[in-house]
Specification:
globular, binds nicotinamide-adenine-dinucleotide
């Protein structure tokens, strides 16, 4: 089936047009239609992969929303992801740290809702340097929660990962993670994300903070930093370099096209129940060899580019998600198959060589520095 390009652009609308029923500021007890007040959404980590896709998606779908992007511009933040909206009067960028209360207050003041993406997100980096993961993912989340309480935001959505649940076996394919799966993180990254999830739940219980959580499987799509496996394989294959596959290549991930993650968060933000957690999955389990084979086939490159490298320490063997709760309660399901999404993603990297080449050469940091100097 050919890719449905109308669904696959980073800023495209999803299938869930009914999610426009409620707006982020909706929490009045009145059963009457809401009087809409000006809407202002704080997105943390909006210069990263998913955060940038989410901002592009939301600004297209809700042109009247104001969006504030708070991002520290670590190596993973890239303002070039947001060129399409940088001059939009409803978009503003604040270069700041979620661990810094003053930065967070400056960004959150006047916002009715928060969607929290900012994190250290790369498992391999967490294995070589866990401290920044605890600082950003745990302490940063706690600072955001405290300021959200103090300012009385109406919605706080925390974006988390399926990795908090640990690993599933390769043998029993019917086994899936659900909202009731016990936490069992096995890397410093997933442990720090688990800590942040627990804090969010604790703030709901202790302080009645109006928060929701989502745990999502592996995303892929446009603007994905080329240290992660799919963009790494695509950009290496395009340059006739080897595709490094961990261990046996049998570890399985459940892949979700990034705009489907955006549409799920959009729904939770507008219609999700306070205090609830929603699991988001792609129904697209693939192992490392299958991912590499698919990319090589699309790019018409030889299988000999596959190379097997030493396995990641403590490598989780399988992630897979049961997303029936969000499907039943909010009407969400993935709209892009893996074949469609990976074809569109390879095409995006072909069309946007200058974007990823500027990352590999580190030139993208110039744009970040210029912005940081202006603030
Ligand atoms: N990528 C995935 O497959 C996936 C899947 C499920 C959940 N998630 C979660 O989604 C979120 C976003 O993931 P991503 O892949 O877009 O990450 P990313 O690494 O691409 O982006 C993270 C962003 O956070 C910013 N940031 C880091 N530390 C900060 C700080 N102290 N203050 C302010 N900003 C800071 C970075 O500059 C960057 O722009 C993360 O919370 C991650 O755990 C990711």
């Amino acid at each position: 089936m050919p890719p449905q390009s109308q669904n696959l652009s980073p800023e495209s609308d999803s299938q869930n047009s009914n999610s426009q029923v409620l707006k982020p500021h909706f929490r009045s007890p009145s059963p009457k239609p809401q009087v809409l007040s000006p809407k202002k959404l704080l997105v943390t980590g909006g210069a990263g992969f998913i955060g940038a896709n989410f901002i592009l998606y939301m600004m297209k779908k809700y042109p009247d929303y104001e969006i504030v992007n708070l991002d520290k511009l670590t190596y993973a933040g890239n303002l070039e992801n947001l060129k399409d909206v940088e001059n939009n009067p409803n978009y503003s960028f604040i270069n700041g740290d979620i661990c810094n209360t003053d930065d967070v207050k400056k960004a959150m003041t006047g916002c009715d809702s928060v969607v929290h993406f900012a994190a250290e997100s790369h498992v391999d980096r967490s294995i070589t340097g866990p401290a920044i993961f605890v600082q950003t993912n745990v302490v940063g989340t706690q600072v955001l929660l405290d300021v959200a309480r103090e300012l009385g935001v109406e919605r706080f959505h925390h974006v988390s990962t399926d990795e908090v649940f640990g690993t599933l076996s390769l043998e029993n394919k019917s086994e899936l993670f659900t909202e009731n799966t016990s936490y069992s993180p096995r890397s410093p990254y997933s442990a720090s994300k688990a800590g942040s999830d627990h804090l969010v739940r604790a703030y709901v219980e202790t302080y009645n903070l109006p928060a929701t959580i989502s745990n999502c499987t592996n995303n892929y799509g446009p603007y994905h930093f080329p240290e992660k496996v799919i963009p790494l394989f695509i950009t290496n294959a395009m340059a006739d370099k080897s595709l490094p596959i961990y261990g046996s290549g049998k570890a399985v991930r459940d892949y979700l096209y990034v705009t489907d993650h955006c549409s799920a968060i959009d729904l939770i933000l507008h219609k999700g129940k306070i205090g609830e957690t929603y699991c988001i999955g792609g129904d697209s389990e693939r192992n490392g060899i299958e991912v590499a084979d698919t990319i090589l086939k699309i790019l018409d490159k030889p299988q000999t580019l596959k190379t097997y490298v030493e396995d990641r320490k403590g490598h989780d063997m399988r992630y897979a998600m049961d997303h029936s709760k969000i499907s039943k309660e909010l009407g969400w399901k993935p709209s892009v198959s893996f074949d469609q999404g990976i074809t569109a993603t390879v095409e995006w990297y072909k069309q946007n060589e200058s974007w990823w080449k500027r990352i590999i050469s580190k030139e993208y940091l110039d744009s970040n520095r210029a912005e940081a100097n202006e603030q």
